[in-house]
Recover the amino acids of this structure.
């Protein structure tokens, strides 16, 4: 039986980062991955495919040029699913290559097969040909991620009724689509389809969505989507989904019906723990298959078994999963850890992008902090003019008492990149003066920071 210092189950962002960190500490490491190739949900069905699809859609549709050439401007008139999948294939191939090389360079062993616990230290790995192998780990990391939640009353068919893992292999581009679930994934796909001129209806059982986003930014976002013809059906759950002829007919709890060519179900994901044999190592999960961990060390209740990434729930991002993996591996092998930064950014790769770091205006108010806001419109920057941006905004929030930056919220082109300037200033406890006193490259969209900071500064008391 092969023995390792560290066995990682799952090769997504958190498993990968943990494995490489442990290998760098001189430990023997095995990564067991159920898929044919390494990379996890992030590389094969989630982050990378959806962002590649978005980039392809924006390029082929001429989206970024429409500010200049008008709403009817298109780079390619007829866009098919083959146009979308071509770029996807190349990107994924490259990503997997980089990962495999990373594992090789760092001496991390990989094994294809599904792992399940035999006891607290041993795992049975079932390979694709059905054979079983026993491996033993001094420490074990569960980084198995999630699978889409698929309710029993919906007949997923790989063709017209898809979940968020299947949409990347979508057989054809529909003319109309219903997206169930207005979470990050649902909203991203809904807006990508809308940029491709697909008629989109979003159904969300709750009256509100993306509640962690600053209200002013979200209002502007929703306004832009409605202006593009996206329909929102909020406040009523889906009660039935049926295929009738070439249409998918969706009925909602308020007695309304939506008929579209395709339905994409994006209402939640479950921890991929069902077949892990967690009982055998003394662990259990919550109702969504998620594991509970110590938030500082990522240890489960069984101290040598760690869990990171989406399987432990919020915030379920590739970016944060990687950091969790690194921390878990460092803790497992006794490396001291600096305290985690107070704020990390969120990126929603919708069309248009949203990105945010720090507190929203609602949160600042709830904490009864005296604050002032500054707003910049991207069209106020020279770079924005050059790019033909007629939409997009940045909102900054400052404490009146300390002058410190409390939050940055961006909507529009480049938001997910621009946010990192705000993140740095926020985590380094910078104030409004940083933005007023420093020189920014010109022309850039980052100039919006100066404009928004000046806007707030103009309204802040002088002493
Ligand atoms: C559509 C979509 C878009 C997203 N976009 C973004 C984004 O833009 N930015 C961002 O930061 N995050 C994004 N995410 C979230 C991101 O993909 C996840 O946070 C991240 O993949 C979680 O990483 P993980 O380490 O938990 O493992 P995962 O990536 O979930 O991978 C887990 C791996 O474990 C394997 N596995 C499961 N069970 C076993 C077993 N028993 N034995 C062996 N192997 C097993 C699985 O096959 C899988 O490969 C997106 C997710 C989705 C679905």
């Amino acid at each position: 039986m092969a023995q390792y210092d560290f066995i990682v189950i799952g090769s997504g962002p958190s498993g990968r980062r943990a494995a490489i960190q442990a290998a760098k500490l001189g430990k023997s490491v095995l990564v067991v991955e159920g898929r044919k190739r390494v990379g996890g949900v992030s590389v094969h069905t989630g982050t990378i495919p959806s962002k590649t699809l978005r980039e392809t859609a924006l390029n082929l549709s001429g989206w970024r040029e429409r500010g200049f050439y008008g709403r009817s401007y298109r780079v390619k008139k007829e866009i098919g699913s083959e146009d979308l999948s071509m770029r996807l294939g190349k990107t994924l191939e490259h990503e997997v290559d980089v990962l495999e090389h990373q594992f090789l360079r760092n001496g991390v062993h990989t094994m294809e097969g599904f792992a399940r616990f035999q006891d607290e230290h041993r795992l049975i790995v079932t390979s694709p040909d059905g054979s079983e192998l026993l491996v033993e780990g001094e420490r074990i990391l569960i980084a198995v991620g999630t699978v889409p939640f698929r309710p029993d009353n919906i007949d997923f068919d790989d063709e017209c009724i898809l979940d968020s893992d299947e949409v990347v292999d979508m057989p054809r581009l529909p003319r109309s689509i219903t997206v169930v679930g207005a979470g990050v994934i649902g909203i991203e796909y809904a807006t990508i389809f809308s940029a491709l001129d697909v008629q989109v209806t979003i159904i969300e059982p709750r009256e509100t969505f993306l509640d962690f986003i600053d209200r002013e930014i979200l209002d502007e976002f929703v306004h832009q989507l409605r202006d593009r013809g996206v329909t929102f059906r909020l406040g009523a759950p889906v009660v039935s989904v049926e295929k009738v002829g070439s249409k998918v007919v969706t009925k909602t709890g308020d007695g309304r019906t939506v008929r579209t060519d395709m339905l994409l179900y994006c209402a939640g994901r479950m921890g991929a723990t069902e077949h892990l044999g967690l009982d055998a190592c003394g662990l259990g999960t919550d109702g969504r298959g998620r594991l509970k961990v110590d938030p500082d060390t990522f240890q489960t209740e069984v101290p040598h078994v760690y869990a990171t990434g989406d399987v432990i729930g919020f915030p379920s991002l590739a970016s944060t999963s990687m950091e969790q993996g690194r921390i878990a591996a460092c803790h497992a092998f006794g490396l001291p850890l600096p305290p985690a930064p107070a704020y990390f950014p969120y990126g929603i790769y919708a069309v248009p992008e949203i990105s945010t770091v720090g507190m929203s205006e609602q949160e600042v108010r709830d904490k009864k902090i005296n604050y002032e806001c500054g707003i910049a419109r991207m069209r106020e920057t020279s770079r924005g003019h050059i790019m033909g941006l007629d939409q997009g905004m940045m909102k900054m929030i400052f404490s009146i008492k300390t002058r410190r930056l409390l939050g940055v919220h961006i909507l529009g082109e480049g938001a997910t990149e621009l946010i990192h300037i705000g993140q740095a200033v926020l985590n380094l406890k910078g104030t409004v003066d940083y933005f007023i006193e420093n020189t920014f490259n010109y022309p850039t969209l980052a100039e919006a920071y100066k404009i928004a900071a000046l806007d707030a500064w103009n309204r802040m008391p002088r002493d």
